[in-house]
Design brief:
2-enoyl-CoA Hydratase, Chain A, domain 1, 4 domains, five-stranded mixed β-barrel, about 45% helix
């Protein structure tokens, strides 16, 4: 438990296990964002920014190829980029890469944004609301009938479906407007295209690298990292505390490598693994309560529960879903101890499945629990409940017989020859016995009655 506490403390502590401060001085640091943006990747990039500042790096490059990610992780990373004292360069690469959704916000927040040829940027509509609005019939491509200045928005909000568009509720408008304002504020800070920032959020607009450069969405297009450093050399950027003229044309390049902390975070913040750890932890504690003194289930249960809880608290958890999972497990356990003809067990299984589906409040790519996993856990939980319930029913149906009634009908073995009174071996000990017929040593006898401390026996 002490080791576990130390492990969790190290996860929440700042800093990293980098080398000496001078190790990266005069270099350009490169950190990869390859795949969905989640807590583990955001933590690695944030720590890399801090380490690059401390080491005196000339700049930090985020080489990015992402379909998007979690809003919470994106906003944490953007805040750190805006507060950074080291110039942060976002580079959408290699060829064929994309900076979709959360990647667009990161590019807009960076001091310099660049793309490789054959890459694209955009599609920044918050996915949690179901994607971009449905275009109005007859409208030009990319036009959904609403206007950036808000004209016609009230009609769109109150649409009843007669024009083919779904009605838009207040929450959707709030999410869209918040995302638009957020991206536009980043565009205004970095001097980038404000109008397109609204288009990519409201309509899911996308640009290839050449268009992005032409429309002032990015600052440079470069085929390689070295070419990018040569192009940005001499560019002045303003960090949180100073204005820096980049001197990176001949700088050495240091690739930031992942460490044990990143690997551990990546494992326990995987939704499927965090969900499994939570369930295993709960069942481990239930087993310990059912059979006190086993120790092993409680230790494993506590470890799994803590790791699962730590992973889930870094994800967008729907606490109503979490509550339904706990209620569902509680009902299935209660069914074993207080059989209700399966009513509580069935209700528990339903609550467990619904809660599992609701558990993560996001549609971000890579951050949903697969239905197959939910089904497997639900089936396993229901199966364990049925097995335990069947064992309990069988135990209740078995009549426990003790004392005189339990002794009658039992077998005994003659310890000597005798014709009336002698001794037999029964119930694991030596008994005085009486019989009406002679018996010989070793004969198998049956107890027909008990007279005080004397067994009445007869031959089998």
């Amino acid at each position: 438990m002490v080791l576990l506490a130390a492990l969790l403390a190290s996860l929440t502590a700042g800093g990293s296990e980098g080398g000496e401060a001078d190790a990266g001085r005069g270099q350009v640091w490169v950190v990869e964002l390859d795949g969905p943006l989640g807590p583990a990747v955001a933590d690695l990039i944030i720590r890399s920014i801090a380490d690059a500042e401390e080491a005196g790096a000339r700049a930090l490059v985020i080489r990015m190829d992402t379909p998007g990610g979690l809003d919470k992780s994106m906003r944490q990373l953007v805040r750190e980029i805006l507060a950074a004292n080291v110039p942060v360069i976002t580079y959408v690469a290699p060829d064929g890469a994309r900076a979709a959704s959360a990647g667009t916000y990161i590019a807009y927040a960076s001091h310099i944004a660049a793309m490789a040829p054959a890459t694209n940027i955009g599609s920044s509509t918050p996915v949690s609301i179901g994607g971009p609005p449905t275009p109005t019939p007859g409208a030009p491509p990319g036009d959904d009938g609403a206007r950036p200045d808000g004209e016609g928005q009230e009609d769109a909000d109150n649409a009843d479906g007669r024009d083919g568009r779904p009605s838009t509720d207040a929450m959707t408008r709030k999410v869209i407007n918040d995302a638009v304002a957020y991206l536009q504020s980043l565009a205004e800070l970095r001097g980038r295209n404000i109008e397109w920032a609204e288009e990519t959020v409201r309509y899911g607009a996308n640009l290839r690298s050449s268009e992005a450069l032409e429309k002032n969405v990015v600052d440079f297009v470069a085929s390689s990292l070295r070419e990018l450093l040569e192009k940005v050399d001499g560019t002045s950027v303003t960090t949180s505390s100073r204005t820096v003229t980049l001197d990176v044309a001949d700088a050495g390049i240091r690739l930031v490598e992942t460490d044990w902390r990143h690997e551990l975070l990546e494992i326990i913040t995987d939704p499927t693994i965090a969900y499994g750890l939570l369930i295993f932890g709960i069942y481990g504690l239930i087993l310990e309560f059912y059979s006190p003194g086993m120790i092993f289930p409680s230790v494993i249960g506590i470890v799994c529960l803590l790791l699962g809880a730590y992973g889930l608290q870094m994800l967008p958890v729907n606490y109503a879903g979490l509550a339904l999972i706990l209620v569902g497990i509680g009902l299935m356990v209660a069914e074993v101890f207080t059989p209700s003809l399966g009513i509580m067990g069935f209700a528990g299984a339903v609550a467990f499945v619904i809660g599992s589906v609701m558990l993560l409040d996001t549609e971000a790519p890579g951050y949903r629990i697969p239905y197959m996993v939910i089904g497997a856990f639900a089936a396993a939980s229901a199966g364990l409940t049925l097995f335990a319930l069947g064992a309990a029913v069988r135990a209740r149906q078995q009549r426990v017989v003790t004392g005189h009634e339990g002794m009658v009908g039992a077998t005994a073995e003659a310890m000597e020859d005798f014709s009336e009174i002698g001794y037999v071996w029964a119930f694991g000990e030596r008994w005085r016995a009486r019989t009406l017929t002679p018996v010989r040593k070793g004969d198998k006898l049956r107890v027909t009655d008990v007279d005080g401390l004397t067994l009445i026996v007869t031959g089998e």
